[in-house]
């Protein structure tokens, strides 16, 4: 018998995100928690220990932060998860909400940076393109930057004299460029490494008068670090001699970097001293670092978890930094690594086996979204629920995933979806041949990009899958392009090499609706009514074709956007998925 309460308890277990603190008042922090059953924004005064809930909305709040003074909490107010709205703010100690920048109309958010003086730099995206606004206290917002292609606020210097803007004026939003400007809009310097090589700012040095900007680059085929001083005109590449990929942030005095090293789906932390180039490993357990930050006293706080152990916020002092009230999540099974030869090279897959039963198991391929993301050794209530119900779970870091170099990530361009599915099929065949998976009880499943790959896979590989579960998918790519937010249109143009009008055959070959008549497996589709990323009309187009063709399917619609921040809604969706798969596999 399946312990129903055990798997649901993993979803219901109260969690907190890594607290972020105010630069000028580091005892004041802000974090996110689902302690009420919905993800909302909270404050924490480390001196008094007092915690306070800032937001309380039916569909939750995902974006929030604290300004450098610690006086104001900023949070983004959209409508039922549609991601279109305005920035609000509330005093740290409580009080009424107010528009943070009254002169700005609703838009999709595209970056935010706040200064100690009350200055804010706000990025916005609408059908008219991308705009960066300079917002001074008591003054009307000023347009600092505008372009039809994607742009976002990347960083604000500590003394508020320099603003870094990421942009794709060159037409490729998958490989961005950087521009540093002054508050009057004048350009200080530009940084772009050319076609197929992006640069991304991680922040100015947190010291007044220091113009150094920490930048991620891809000059040697993987994400690495450099320090760019746009005033001095210097670039210093940091060669850390670590395999895999690296990201970093500053220590508060600007003398060192806190490096997150990711390799083969696990993370570790290092301190890199800029004066002598010394690299010191920070002791953390084997697993995944969801976020990390250095405190003013030099200690490091980090969010850690693994497939077997639920998330915890830890400090290098050995202490647990912050916990939510309530019972912790039950543990799950550890993940196993598999390396499978594929058409584009070795594919890394992560395997979770049920604790009961014998192989070959009913097996679900849970396909990650993005596509610029990866599956890793992290705790997943979704994966654990399938394992508890006797399924093996296979997750594939297909070409298109991050974590394995830029060539692997970019291999899907101009052949979108089809390349990823070649890798998924290679792992699928390995899972069957190795005796792990029952070939008659294979489920293809995913959300967002994973949902897109699920529908495309059901149509292009109809004999390989017994059931399909697609959450918030791209289903009709041309209609999706027409209705999606402007930033995603720019992303799709970069991915496909043009718009549907410019390269129609590429969109047709990569669109699930093209192959809907070939679908054999029963399919469950979950869709958010207010989703700006995978809009509802294009999903309805696909569903209408399924109905007209008499294909077995079920649709579940919910009143939110690209996923839900409400715990009970997530449980409800998982119950529907489990019941649908078990029924059609003869396991119910």
In short:
The chain has 10 helices and 36 strands. With 588 residues, the protein is of the alpha+beta class.
Task: Characterize the structure shown.
- With 588 residues, this protein is of the alpha+beta class.
- The protein is 18% helix and 35% strand.
- The strands form eight sheets. It has an eight-stranded mixed β-sheet with strand order 29-30-32-31-33-34-35-36, sandwiched between helices. The chain has a four-stranded antiparallel β-sheet with strand order 1-2-3-4, with no helix packed on it. It has a four-stranded antiparallel β-sheet with strand order 5-6-7-8, with no helix packed on it.
- Helix 1 runs antiparallel to helix 2 and helix 6 packs antiparallel against helix 9.
- It is globular.
- The termini are close together.
Mean pLDDT: 97
Give a short account of the largest sheet.
8 strands, mixed
Number of helices: 10
Radius of gyration: 24 Å
Strand order of the largest sheet: 29-30-32-31-33-34-35-36
Layout: helices, strands, pairs:
Layout: H1 4-12, E1 20-21, E2 28-33, E3 40-45, E4 51-53, E5 64-66, E6 72-77, E7 86-91, E8 98-99, E9 108-114, E10 120-126, E11 129-135, E12 142-147, E13 151-156, E14 163-167, E15 177-181, E16 187-191, E17 200-204, E18 213-217, E19 224-229, E20 234-238, E21 245-250, E22 256-263, E23 266-273, E24 279-282, E25 288-294, E26 300-305, E27 312-315, E28 320-322, E29 336-342, E30 345-352, E31 361-367, H2 381-388, E32 392-397, H3 406-410, H4 418-433, E33 437-447, H5 449-460, E34 467-471, H6 477-483, H7 486-496, H8 504-510, E35 523-528, H9 536-549, E36 553-558, H10 567-584
Parallel strand pairs: 31-32, 31-33, 33-34, 34-35, 35-36
Antiparallel strand pairs: 1-2, 2-3, 3-4, 5-6, 6-7, 7-8, 9-10, 10-11, 11-12, 13-14, 14-15, 15-16, 17-18, 18-19, 19-20, 21-22, 22-23, 23-24, 25-26, 26-27, 27-28, 29-30, 30-32
Helix pairs in contact: 1-2, 6-9
């Amino acid at each position: 018998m399946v312990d129903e309460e055990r798997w649901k308890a993993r979803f219901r277990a109260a969690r907190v995100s890594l607290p972020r603190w105010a630069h000028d008042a580091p005892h004041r922090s802000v974090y996110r928690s689902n302690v009420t059953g919905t993800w909302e924004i909270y404050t924490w005064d480390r001196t008094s220990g007092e915690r306070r809930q800032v937001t309380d909305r039916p569909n939750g709040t995902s974006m929030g932060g604290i300004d450098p003074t610690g006086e104001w909490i900023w949070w983004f107010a959209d409508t039922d998860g549609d991601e279109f709205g305005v920035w609000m703010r509330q005093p740290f100690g409580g009080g009424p909400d107010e528009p943070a920048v009254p002169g700005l109309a609703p838009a999709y958010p595209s970056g935010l940076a706040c200064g100690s003086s009350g200055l804010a730099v706000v990025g916005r995206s609408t059908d008219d393109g991308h705009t960066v606004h300079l917002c001074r206290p008591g003054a009307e917002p000023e347009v600092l930057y505008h372009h039809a292609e994607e742009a976002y606020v990347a960083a604000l210097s500590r003394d508020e004299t320099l603003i870094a803007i990421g942009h794709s004026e060159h037409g490729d939003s998958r490989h961005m460029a950087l521009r540093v400007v002054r508050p009057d809009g004048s350009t200080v310097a530009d940084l772009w490494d050319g076609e197929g090589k992006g640069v991304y700012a991680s922040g100015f040095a947190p010291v007044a008068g220091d113009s150094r900007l920490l930048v991620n680059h891809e000059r040697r085929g993987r994400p690495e670090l450099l320090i760019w001083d746009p005033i001095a005109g210097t670039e210093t590449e940091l060669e850390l001699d670590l395999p895999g990929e690296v990201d970093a942030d500053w220590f508060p005095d600007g003398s060192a970097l806190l490096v997150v090293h990711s390799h083969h789906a696990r993370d570790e932390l290092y301190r890199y001293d800029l004066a002598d180039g010394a690299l010191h490993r920070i002791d953390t357990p084997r697993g995944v670092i969801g976020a990390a930050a250095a405190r003013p006293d030099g200690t490091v706080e980090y969010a850690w978890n693994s497939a077997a152990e639920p998330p915890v916020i830890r400090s290098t002092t050995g202490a647990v930094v912050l916990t939510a009230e309530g019972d912790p999540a039950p543990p799950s099974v550890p993940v196993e690594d598999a390396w499978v030869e594929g058409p584009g090279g070795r594919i890394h897959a992560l395997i979770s086996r049920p604790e009961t039963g014998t192989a070959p198991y009913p097996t679900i391929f849970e396909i990650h979204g993005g596509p610029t993301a990866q599956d890793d050794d992290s705790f997943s209530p979704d994966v654990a629920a399938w394992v508890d119900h006797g399924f093996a779970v296979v997750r594939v870091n297909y070409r298109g995933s991050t974590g394995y170099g830029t060539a692997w990530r970019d291999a899907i361009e101009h052949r979108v979806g089809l390349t990823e599915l070649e890798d998924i099929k290679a792992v699928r065949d390995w899972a069957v041949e190795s005796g792990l998976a029952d070939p008659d009880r294979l489920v293809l499943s995913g959300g967002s990009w994973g949902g897109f790959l699920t529908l495309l896979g059901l149509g292009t590989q109809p004999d390989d899958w017994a059931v399909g579960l697609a959450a918030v998918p791209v289903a009709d790519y041309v209609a999706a392009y027409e209705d999606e937010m402007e930033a995603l249109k720019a992303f799709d143009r970069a991915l496909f090499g043009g718009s549907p009008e410019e390269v129609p055959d590429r969109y047709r070959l990569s669109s699930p609706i093209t192959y809907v008549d070939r679908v054999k497996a029963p399919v469950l589709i979950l869709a958010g009514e207010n989703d700006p990323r995978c809009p509802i009309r294009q999903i309805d187009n696909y569903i209408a074709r399924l109905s007209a063709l008499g294909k077995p399917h079920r649709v579940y619609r919910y009143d939110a956007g690209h996923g839900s921040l409400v715990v009970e809604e997530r449980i409800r969706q998982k119950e529907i998925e489990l019941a649908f798969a078990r029924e059609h596999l003869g396991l119910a």
